[in-house]
# Entry
Amino acid sequence: MALPKQSEDFPGWYQEVVKQAGLAESSLARGTMVIKPYGFAIWERIQRAFDDRIKATGHENVYFPLLIPHKLLEREAQHVEGFAPEVAVVTHAGGEELEEPLFIRPTSETIFWATYAKWVQSYRDLPLLYNQWCNVVRWEKRPRLFLRTTEFLWQEGHTAHETSEEAIAEARKILLDVYRDAAETVLGLPVRVGRKSESERFAGAVETFCMEGLMRDSKALQAGTSHYLGQNFSKAYGVKFLGRDNSEQFAEATSWGVSTRLVGGVIMTHGDDRGLRLPPLLAPIQVVIVPIYKSDDERALVLDATKRLVGALGDVRVKVDDREGFRPGFKYNEWELKGVPIRLEIGPKDLAAGQVTLARRDNGNKAPVPEAGVVQRVTELLDEIQRTLYEQAAAFRDEHTFEPKDYDEFKTLLTEPGGFLVAGWCGDRSCEDRVKAETKATIRYLPLDPEPVQGACIVCGRPATERATFAIAY
# Structure
C-alpha cells in the first residue's frame, strides 16, 4: 500500500509509516499501544544512547513501584493540580474496595521523595543520583502512537542535592551533556534548548529546561525536559538533613525524562515519502544484504559470497534477507520503508564482475562497488549518512525559523510555512494566552540564560522582557 505524501497528508503519512514499517499498533485499551519488534529495537537503541550517558555522569538505575498510595499525591498541591486530569486511580482489588485508593504513576516524584526521607539524614548522604526506566500512565484524550499514548515508556531521573546551585547545575547538565548530546549525535535530531515559561513548566517545578525539535510538517516536538524542583518536594515529604553548619536543611531536587515520543520524533524528522530514514548510529539494522539468484547453483554461489561479506563487515549491524518466495523488488521497497541506511545487492552478474551493488536510503543513489572495497565504502557511508541526515534536518529547521515584524505577520507565518517564530514578549501571561487562543501556538522555549532584550512584545507592543520562540506543537 502506497504511503500518503507528506505534503498532502502528513498525519496520514505518519500513521501509515508506523503501521507499514512494523513499529507499533493500537492495543485493546483506549490510548495504549503494542510496540512491535522493529519499533522496540529502535527504542532499545535510544535507551542505550541515553542510558550510557546517564551512567557516565555518575547516576545509577533503580526501580520504584507502579502503584502509589493516594495520600502521597495529595502532599504536593501544585503537583496534584497539574496531574489530576491525567491520573488513573485503582479503587478495587482482590474483589474488594481498597481502604486507600492507589494511583498508577503518571510520574514518580511522590514515591521517590517519600522514600528519600528515609535515606537522607546528613549532607554526607547527598547527592542522590538515581534514574529509572519504566512505564507511566497518563489518561490521554487524543492519543497518537508514540507521540501521545495513555501508557508509554520512558526514563525518569530523580536527584537530591545539598544546595540549589548543585541542583540547577544538575538539571542543566542532563539537558546539555546527556539529552542534547544523545539526540543530536545518535538520533540525528537538531534541537534547540531553553527554559519554559511559567505556564508551560512541569507541575511543581521552579524551572523547567527543555529541548525542542522541528518536525517536517513545521510543528515543534518537545523532545525532553529537565526540571529544577527547588525544595517543593523535600518540604512536602520531609526530606531534611543536618547541614555542614549543623543546621537542619531541606534537600534541593531535580527530575528529568525522555520517552518513546522520541521514536515519533525520529520518524517525523527524517522520514520521506518512501518511509523511514534512520540515522546509522540509531538503526537496528545498518546494512541489509539482498542475495539474488534463480537456480540452485546460483543460490549456492551467491549465499557463499554473502556469508563472506557478513564476516568482513564485522561489527556492522547486518541483516541478510534470503527469504524465499519474495521478489527482490518487494524486499527493496520493504527495507526502504523501514529506513535501513544501506542496501547491498549480490547476484550472479555482480559476482562475475567482482562487485556488489550498493544503494543508499538517504538519497536513493545506487552504484556498483568492487567487492574488495565494500567494507571501507560501507564504513565511510555510514558516517556520511549520519552526518547528512542531521545536516538536512538542521537546515530545514533553520529555513523554518523566522523573526516576524508584527503580530499579523506572526499569524501568517504560523499558517504558512510554519516553524519556529522568534519574537519579543512582555512576560505577561495574558499575551501568551492570547497567542494560544488565536493561533494554537505556545512558547516552546525562552533563552536558556536570560538576556537583555530590546524591542516590543509581538502581541501587545509593550516593552519586551524576553525573546520567546513560539510554534504550534504536538
User: Anything to note?
Assistant: The chain has a mean pLDDT of 96. The CA atoms of residues 70 and 100 lie 7 Å apart.
